[in-house]
Fold these 4 entries.
Entry 1:
Amino acid sequence: MLKKPKILVWNAVANMIENASENAGGKPESGGILLGSIRGPHLEIVDFTETGPADRGTFSEFVRQDKLHQRKADNAWRLSDGTVTFIGEWHSHPMGRPIPSSVDKANWCQLTKTRKHPMFFFIASPSSWSGYLVTRTLTRNRIRSFTRVEYGDVGIVLS
């Protein structure tokens, strides 16, 4: 049986998601993309984008549409010689716990359909944040939640 993959989240990304959680309360949803590398069954999240001027957030939805996200992903890919890529998204919820809605899950599964690797997603809410890995099989998508298991100099490890 395969072991559960580990997710290494660099400190800058972990700090961003902590700040997003602290500032999520009572505000429209915000979000961006996650950039990183695939390390066998594991992911390393090294960078992110923040909400851009053309993105749209309401109290129940975030729509990523600013071109800055694609530009940053393209630049990361180019500068890393193809090792850093788009590996997920993050967004906030203005209230409650960081639990994905049915819309979140449907969007995640749709995004994962177009990738050959698992995708990772963060939700930041006023109470805390959570991470979810979406993997695709031949018959369905699998969504697994991840929690912090280790802190280090580079960042945090989720499992």
Entry 2:
Amino acid sequence: MDIATLLGLLLGFGFVAGGIGSNMPSFIDPPSILIVIGGTFSITTVCFSLSDIIKAQGIMLKTVLFKLPAADDEAKNMIELAQKARANGILAIQGDIDQIPNEFLKQAFGLAVDGTNPEVIENIMKSDTAGMLERHMSGALVLKKSAEIAPAMGLVGTLIGLVIMLGSLDDPSSIGPAMAIALLTTMYGAVMANMVFNPLAAKLELNSRNEAQIRKIYTSSVLSVVRQENPRQLELVLNTILPPSKRISMFD
């Protein structure tokens, strides 16, 4: 689990709730929630296909709960596998391959063990990575569009509340609920856009870049193993992918 994302969301809403304090019941208004959340979801659906919206919900959940492994740790694991394969042959790492939790890497090594041409393996891995990036980009676009729509729906709710209030000036008992709709919808829209949708879109883009980096490490490593290259050479290649602070040295 990505603790930073979950912790950030919880702390953000916790601070807002702490600021509201005992006045919390006054900040809960079902009509305002219906306008902002229901309206945002509905209008976002107009902008995309239904399948895109459904996929975005899963990607959003994955953004909150999924944590990528450290790129330098994965690079070290790949060099260890490369050393074992070079010393004993690629079939010697079959047991290690079976224990790999990452399906992308496991499939690639499976192709390698089966004797698949390196160019074919490379094309498959790069195509799979491109598909992953496209899915993540689509999810980020849905979140960004939701962040644009939520404040607009808040403004719509504000206008609705003002119209109701102005039409009921002769009835003092209706002014309070109308003002609640007018003000709370703006607040809900701002909260959803700036505390949920935009941060999750940014985190999804970051995770996507990091996952692409790790997949590049996997691709270079699998191809190196297939070609029976020196693991020292693989280390040099992987260090060109890793940032300077994360570069590894296993042959000193």
Entry 3:
Amino acid sequence: YYIGRPFGKHKLAPRVSPKKSWEGSFASVIASAAVGTLYVQRFLPGVPLWQAAALSVAANIAGQLGDLAESTMKRGAHLKDSGSILPGHGGLLDRVDSTLFALPVIYAYLRLV
């Protein structure tokens, strides 16, 4: 958001989510690699740095896909928000859309590694 908003020039998926940009998406991946690596190292200290970074990047990309998938469903249903439980937040689904896609990636990593 902080990079995509001021510097985003190339639309990521203009028909689905017109305010998202490739620049913001890339900045999100970079930030998640840095922060996620530190987080994984703190709570799973045995995980090598490269795996922590790779897991963070994969979960971030999956999360962004989840957000776009949820936006696609809302566009298809001609809805602005997915509910009114959380006013001003686009609905409850907007709060969990990224997690719904990122958690299976994290789970697969934990099962396979």
Entry 4:
Amino acid sequence: AAPYLRGARLKADPEGKSPEIGEEWDLVIGLEEWQRFEIEIVGGLFRAGKAYDSLEGKLAHNVILKVDFNF
């Protein structure tokens, strides 16, 4: 158990009382149909575990759209 998560993009920090951080599900969809153009959509869902004490069971989400033009 630790009172922080290094590199996590969550706004809440764990309480440092439990090692059960939670669960995360990710979905990545990429499209590379064209020679120079790529599209990627990334979605993530996180459910806080016992390490977050009063926030246990709360959900956090993230959606990223990435577009690359290669030349």
